[in-house]
Structures are given as C-alpha cells and as structure tokens.
Specification:
Oligomer: single chain
Radius of gyration: 20 Å
Structural class: alpha/beta
Helix content: 25-40%
Number of helices: 10
Shape: globular
CATH architecture of the largest domain: Alpha-Beta Complex
CATH superfamily of the largest domain: Medium-chain alcohol dehydrogenases, catalytic domain
Strand content: 15-25%
CATH topology of the largest domain: Quinone Oxidoreductase, Chain A, domain 1
CATH class of the largest domain: Alpha Beta
Order of helices and strands: EHEEHEEEEEHEHEHEHEHEHEHHE
Largest sheet: 6 strands, antiparallel
Distance between the termini: 26 Å
Length: about 350
C-alpha cells in the first residue's frame, strides 16, 4: 500500500477544466475521529459544473486555488476512525459532496458518505443522478400520477432517468433530444413522443400535438427549448429549471418577446429552480427510493458507450459531456489506466 494517492486539483482559473487543473500526489492520511477513508473505484462526471468551477463562475460554490475537484465517487472503505459506527472496513461508500470526486482516495467525516450495496457504477449513478432526477420531478416539479411531462436532454444521464421515473408514475412523457441515435435510445425507454429538435420545431410539435399543455417540464438546456416549454404549459403547470447547458458562457442575450409574466400569470404557471445542493435534507429518503426502484427492476441505468479510465480519463470525459455527443451517464473507472 502506497503512502500517497493522486487527485485532480484546481491550480488556476482558466477557460476549460483541463487547462485549470493538474494531477497531484497527496499524502494518504489515516482517518480521525468520526472519519472514514475510502479507496474510490468510480467517479461521475459533471462537465458543465467542472467548466464553470474552472472559470470561477459558480456563485454558490466559492473556490480559491488550490482546490480539489469533482463531486461524486464510490469506493470501498479501507480504514475507519474512532467514534464511527455506521461503516466498517470493506463497506461500499458513496459521496456526492464537492471535492470528493476526482481523487483516488478520500478521507472525510462519515456523515459525508452513504452506504451502498456495492462499489459499482450503477449505485454511484443512482446515489447522484438518480437522487437529482427524483427530487427534480417529485419535490420541485410536484408531479402527479398520469400528468403530461416534458423533459429536455432526455438522452443524458439525468434525462434518461427522468423519463423512466415519469413513466413509472404513469405519466405521458415527451422527450426532447438531438439526433436520430439519441431519439432511438429515448424511444426505447418508452417515451410516448420523442422530439428531435434538430429535425422538428419543438414549440410547433407541442402546440399541435399537446393542445392541453404540459403539466411538468424539466429543462436543463435553456434557450429555445425553455421558450417552447414555457409557451406550452398547461394551467397550473410547473416548469423546473435544472440547468442551462445552452448558456454556458453566461453572456447577456437580447430577447424581444413578451415578459415571462404574460406566460405564467393567466395560466397560474410557475417556473421553479432546482438546485440539488439546497435539498440535502431530502437526499437520504430520495436515495432509498431510487435504490428500491432499481432493485425492483423499475429503473435501468445506461452508461455512455465511450470508456474513460484513471484520473487522466476525467479530462476527456468532461470534454465528451460538453460535446453533446454522450448518451446516458458518463462515469470514469478510477482503476489505473492511460485515460482518453
């Protein structure tokens, strides 16, 4: 056993994650009172968040280099400090706390980890993205059985789980994605209507085929997709903003259209922000729910077809997500490798 492990550390602010970070060696410490030490097996990748961290553009996460990076990882407990009763050596432990992700090992308070049945990428995806999907749909979106639900970026890590969770609730699911391959993937999940925004006008399809409107829309794209959802909400509909991938630069945009008040007032529509980090009190119950749904066969986890391995592979995984080409959850195997 070595006395060091490696981690990706933000060393400077830059326009992209690769330019801002270095892989560094970190002394492997023993856990103190109330702490555990975990050898990470897999980490999940959040390309937009990572890029904004590199640019110092995440207002709610103050960062000052040097700072460790990454949010979500799963591994095996290999040391337990005094006063810890919830974990034992050999347990699988998952964390979704910022700075715990892009590292080969992690020492921290046991309260920052949750137990998992095994240290597999499926349980990592459920504990991170699965929890986000459930809370966005049910807690913020307040979905009811049988409602009409629209989901953007439906072929992504979050989107493909949202589709399945909405279908489980008996909802009519409208899935928006880009390109025939992604459309086929989402159609295979059971979505009732798949809109390929590259080939169809989202707003025109919604107006023509769903004249009653959308009860719950979950948007992670912004821009024209957000506008199309907003214009086609049902009375008392809820539009959940869970991201803004089309607005990564954060530049001012001149929009010549009626103010949002005209879209929401007369229908009683609400636009709601989903920020998972503000809902930590709800994580344990949501995690138990998605774990149970997966074990019962109601959820399937799809992973992107391009493999990434080792800390070096994280850079490529971030860039893969930003390219818009990925389908399903992007996860990096932290076993030593050449990366990609």
């Amino acid at each position: 056993m070595t006395d060091h492990y490696r981690a990706i550390r933000l060393e400077r602010f830059a326009e992209d994650f690769r330019s801002a970070c270095d892989i560094v060696a970190v002394p492997l410490a023993m856990p103190g009172p109330g702490e555990i030490r975990v050898r990470n097996r897999f980490c999940g990748v959040n390309g937009i968040f990572d890029t904004q961290i590199a640019r110092n553009a995440v207002d709610y996460v103050p960062v000052k280099p040097p700072s460790f990076t990454g949010v979500e990882a799963i591994g095996i407990v290999d040391a337990v400090g005094p006063e810890v009763s919830d974990f034992a050596v050999g347990d699988a432990a998952v964390t979704v706390r910022f700075t715990g992700g892009y590292r080969e090992a992690n020492v921290g308070p046991a309260s920052g980890f949750a137990r998992a049945p095994s240290a597999s990428r499926e349980w990592l995806a459920l504990a991170s993205t699965g929890v986000s999907a459930l809370l966005a749909l049910e807690h913020v979106g307040a979905v009811q059985d049988g409602e009409t639900v629209a989901i953007s970026a439906a072929a992504g890590g979050l989107g493909h789980l949202l589709v399945q969770l909405a279908l489980y609730r008996g909802c009519t699911v409208i899935a928006v994605c880009g390109g025939p391959e992604k459309a086929a993937f989402v159609r295979g999940l059971g979505a009732h209507r798949v809109i390929d925004y590259r080939a169809e006008d989202v707003g025109a399809v919604l107006a023509a085929e769903f004249p009653r409107g959308i009860d719950v829309a979950i948007d992670t794209v912004s821009g024209a997709v957000f506008d199309a959802f907003l214009a086609n909400m049902a009375p008392l509909g809820r539009l959940v903003v869970a991201g803004a991938a089309a607005d990564l630069e954060g530049r001012p945009e001149i929009v010549q259209a009626p103010r949002i008040v005209h879209s929401i007032y007369y229908k009683g529509v609400s636009v709601r922000g989903f920020m998972n980090g503000l809902l930590t009190a709800h994580w344990p119950a949501a995690r138990a729910r998605v774990f149970a749904l997966f074990e019962a066969g109601h959820l399937q986890i799809s992973f992107d077809a391009v493999p990434f391995r080792g800390l070096e592979g994280i850079y490529g995984a971030v860039e893969r997500l930003l390219s818009g080409q990925s389908m399903g959850k992007v996860v990096v195997d932290l076993s030593p490798g050449d990366g990609q």
